Structures are given as C-alpha cells and as structure tokens.
Amino acid sequence: MTTTHCPYCALQCAMRLEPGPDGALAARPADFPTNRGGLCRKGWTSAEVLRTPDRLTTPLLRKDRTAEFTEVDWDTALDHVADRLAGLRAEHGPDSVAVFGSGGLTNEKSYLLGKFARVALGTSQIDYNGRFCMSSAAAGSMRAFGLDRGMPFPLTDVGEADVVLLAGANPAETMPPMMGHLSAPTLIVVDPRRSATAQQALAQGGMHLAPRPGTDLALALGLLHAVRAEGLADTDYIDARTTGFEATWAHAAAWWPEQTEHVTGVPATQIRAAARLLAEASGAYILTGRGTEQHAKGTDTVSAWINLALALGLPGTRGSGYGCITGQGNGQGGREHGQKADQLPGYRKIDDPAARAHVAGVWGVDPDTLPGPGRSAFELLDALGTETGPRAMLLFGSNPAVSAPDAGRVRDRIAALDLLVTADFVLSETAAMADVVLPVAQWAEETGTMTNLEGRVLRRRAAAAPPSGVRTDLEVLHGLATRLGQPAHRFPTEPDTVLAELRAASARGAADYSGVTPERLESGEALHWPVREGAEPTPRLFLDGFAHADGRARFTPVAHRPPAEATDAEFPLIATTGRLMGHYQSGAQTRRVAELAEAEPAVYVEVHPDTAARYGLAEHAWARVTSPRGSTLARVRLRGDARLDTVFLPFHYAGQQAANNLTNPALDPTSRMPEFKVSAVRLEPAAHH
Ligand code: SF4
User: Fold this and answer.
1) In the chain, where are the structural domains located?
2) Boundaries of each 4Fe-4S Mo/W bis-MGD-type domain copy (predicted)?
3) N or C end of the chain: smaller count of CB under 10 Å?
4) Ligand 1 mean position to 39 CA, how many Å?
5) Predicted-complex ipTM score
6) What is the pTM of this model?
7) CA of 11 to the centre of ligand 1 (A)
8) Pocket of ligand 1 (CB under 6 A)
C-alpha cells in the first residue's frame, strides 16, 4: 500500500494505492487537509489509467508523416532525435527548437525541462500549457502583492469565513472535495451559468450573480462602487496597507450598480446586497478561477477582483483574503521552476541579471550563454513551422492539438514542423502527429514533488514500477542532453538529486524551496513556500506586509472593455467552455477510464430550450457549432436555466468534437492568456454523427 496524491487537479487529494479484489492497484481516499478523506470520481478511478490497454511501451519512429510508426529501441530513438536536433540547431540556430511543457509535470521535471531548454538546447523557445490556465491570476497577484502564490493561505482557513465569493470557478464540478470547505460560509457565485456551485450557493442561502460572458470586470467595478458609495470600504486598511486607491476609484466612479446592471445584466439590487454581505462579514474571501481569468482582459479582470478585496481590507488579514483556485495538478509549481518563457527557477525573471547569475552558478554555466525570454504558449504554437519560428518541438505532458485555442490552426502549425517529438504514455491526439514518440512513466510509477493550490509542496510516491520498456521524463532528458554533448552529471535522473539542485536554484528567490527536503516531506510537514533552509514554512503570506518594496499592496486602475469578438448576424450567440466532473483537461487520461467515458462519452452543447427551438434543435440532436475559426459537432443538451444568448461546451473531447476548434486566441497583453471563455458562434442542425 502506498500513500500518494491524485494524478489530476491542484487540490492534490491524498489517496492510498493498494491492490483491489482482483489484485490490480485501486485508489482509495486518504486523509489530507485539502480533501479530508474524500475523492472525486476521477480520483476514485485514477488507477485504471495505469493499465490502459493502449499504453505505449516501445519508442515509435517514422521517417515522414505519411508513414506508419515503427517500433524502435531507445538508443535508436534518442540518437535519431539528438541528430535531428543538432542538425537543425547547426543550420538554423538554437531557437529553431522549441520545448513545450505542462502544469502536470512534477517540480523536478519542470525544473529539469527548463534547464534542458536553456543549457542543452540553448533555446529561448520554451513555454507550457499552464499559460492557458493560471497566467492571468499570476500576473494580477504579482501586480497587487509583488508575489504570486495561488492561495496565500491554507484552504482550511476558507471554511471558517462567513462569506466566500467565487468568481468564475465551479469547484462542485471540477474539484468536489473542496466543497467540504465551503459548506458553512455564505457563497456568492459569479458565473454566467447556473453551475453546480451556483446551485449549491443558492441551496445554502447564498447568491448567484450571472453576468453576461466577458463582463465580470464591469461587475467587479460595480461591486467596488457599491462598497465605496455605501460607506463599506475599510478606509483604515486602505490608508495603512495599500497605494493607488484614488486612481482606481477614478475608474470605478462611473460604475453605479444601475450602470453595471445595464452592462452585465446582474440586477443592481443583487450588486448592493453582495457588497453588503462581503463588507459585513467578519471573515471573507474572494477566490477567482478560469472563468474570470481566461479572457483577453484576464489580468485586468483579476486586478478588478483584487481591487475589490483590497477595498474590503481582505488580503493579508488573518481569516480573510484573495486567492486563485489553481487548476492543473502542479499549476503552481509548474510556473515557478523555469519552464515558463520568461522565468528561471525560484520564480525569478529571466531578464534579471542577478537572477541569471545565481541560476547559471548553480548550473555551472556562463550566465551570458543563457537565452532571454521566448514566446508565450500560443505565440509559440502559432509560430511552429513558419519562416521565423521553430522547426522542431519537444512536447512533455501536454496535448495542444485538443487543448490549445483555435485548435484547428494549432494542428496545422504542428503539422508544418520538420520534427515533432512527444514524451507520452499513450498516443494522444498530438502524439499521433509526431515523428518520434517516447513512452514515459505515469504518476504512480515514479516519485516527485508537486505544489498544490495553496502553495504546499507534497510528495508523490511510486506505487508500482513502470512497465518494461518505459522510461521516466528525467531519463529522457538525460539521454538527449548527453547525446547533445552535456556532461551526464548535469542532467540527473534521480528525482531527489534534481530536488536538491532545485532547492539551490530557488534559494532566496520569490518561491524559495531551499528548505524542502525529502525528510521534511516524508514527515508530513505542511511545507507551504517560501520554505527557507532551516526555517519554518509560510502557510499564510502577507500578514506582516506585502512583497512590494514598501510593504504595501497596490490597487491597479482597470477599465472594462468588451470581449475581443462581438456577436453579429452570422455568429449571433456566445460560446463559453468549461470542465466536467468526470473528465480532466484534454481528456487524454480520463477518456481512457471506462466508467468516466461511459458517463460522458461525447461533447455536448448546453442550450436554452427557446434558443434551441429557434435553430431547429431538440434535446439529444446533433448540432454543428461554428465560430469564425472552426466548428464542433455536439449533442444538444437543453437547460431551462441557461442564458438565451450563450451556449456552453466542455473542452475534454478531440477532433470534430473539440470545443477548442471554436475558441478565440486573442491574447491578454500582460499574461498572454487566450480568450477561451468568449467566442461568437452560430448553431445549426447537423446530420446524425
Ligand atoms: Fe481530488 Fe482533483 Fe483528484 Fe478529484 S481530480 S480526486 S478533486 S485531486
């Protein structure tokens, strides 16, 4: 029996992996502060992914994309990849090779992947799928607090508050054990849909505010207006602990609740009531999720929610706060250790000379040889195979053919590459497009650390050996790096050796892991970062001051603007996307679990009955949903509480059923987050599919 953590989301529920009645490993809940002995359906069935029948155990190679894959041995595969990479670099320069990582990789893999890109390949062209997940919240927190840790407090604190406002988050569906922390507070849920979380809020006597998609920034401005106009702002806190309130108020002053109602559709009475609920609570939290962050104005929208939290005196106050609900399993750690285009380990900026010198010292290289910042995730994918873009890509733990915005365009770009190499455990939709596929271990077959949504570093433990023929990602990086001329010791394969180096590289950085040792992890100590060597961890940040030099939090003046794409006669409806309880991200894992696949076998489009009738659609009929970029075939699911102007699609399906065939890659100017949440579409009946 092995105690470990779930392979999926950032709640990182603890579980025991032990033989079931048939002798195969089965997952059972274990006690841990985030899940308190609970698991969702995905967690309960997670061990089934370990024995998926289409598991890859031999490297696959093909000479060109029209050919079938051939099974080859590891030396042949790695020699081939290293030769091709060396050739491309020699002919076109180091930036001709791109690396794409994942918020699902362990801290050790995230760290070594960033080092591999900068040192072994010398490329600036590295980013990861977390750019599509957390980047707006990270940028908003950096602006306001000078530091980004999704929740700067333990999740258990939230359950002790009187009121919790959830903006664009649906944990009742995406991370159900979290709802155990939300049963006592009064909930205010901000979501265009009457989501499962919104229903729970109403059942508990709370509120559901349902803005038009893409207007949450205006709603936050309206709430800030109501707080100030009704004398509910915490003026002592604003004076003592913040800067910039008056400039921010200048942007909010026009947002009377009635004006806000006009733009958002949320009744002014609800706006005033919500403001009063938050202000009169003795403890309150504002938490944001992807619904508020995945917009071309996502960073400003996060800033608007943080501005509201600051006006109420919540951040850095014990029993209150602002936080973001991280999505991917290692969404937090994944952005701290150097696989992001603009960052080095320890959450250091890659263009900071001191940061470069420190990290280069740990790596034993000349800081001048380290490349500068590269392209963000979508910009990187969109440049593949172009005249000035990368000609090869190494892909770890991600499936952008399904999960990237404007996925059809991204698939075309991937197809234009000279060389695509994927490390995966199955032939995902993106791996199926590759030239070389390297079969790698899964979560329960190797050890490593993850950092959950509350900035807590935890230990994932191996419960089984990988199948014969399978290697770990660390071994793949070692094999490629040495073939590219790197000394073997520079790319270790033992996770704890990599962790020791990561600790040194992160020391004295914003995300300081220097005190995260295997011994402390094994003891079960709650290691919320920063964890400096020899020091206590930091479960609650900002109680004594924020991370800006003056110790104050910053209000950020932000203005509402409409979504990047407007509806019109050709595309009269708004499409928004989200997750289902039974599936995770691109579905590459969960679509392989029989119970989950049978429960939700196909994409659906959720439509109001009147809207469906207008387009000649009935329950369960197949519909074609079309945006200016592409189309998706989906079964109609009628919802009487849906908005008349909006349809919803889950994004876990592939090919013609991929919701991201529709989504808009318009990018946030700061975070480079695409506008996943608002696309203009039309609906029409489709032939039986
Ligand atoms: Fe917990 Fe998330 Fe895993 Fe579900 S998917 S069991 S909520 S960690």
Assistant:
1) 2-51, 60-132+330-440+472-506, 135-325, 573-685
2) 1-52
3) N
4) 6
5) 0.99
6) 0.96
7) 6
8) 6, 8-9, 11-13, 35, 39-40, 42-43, 175-177
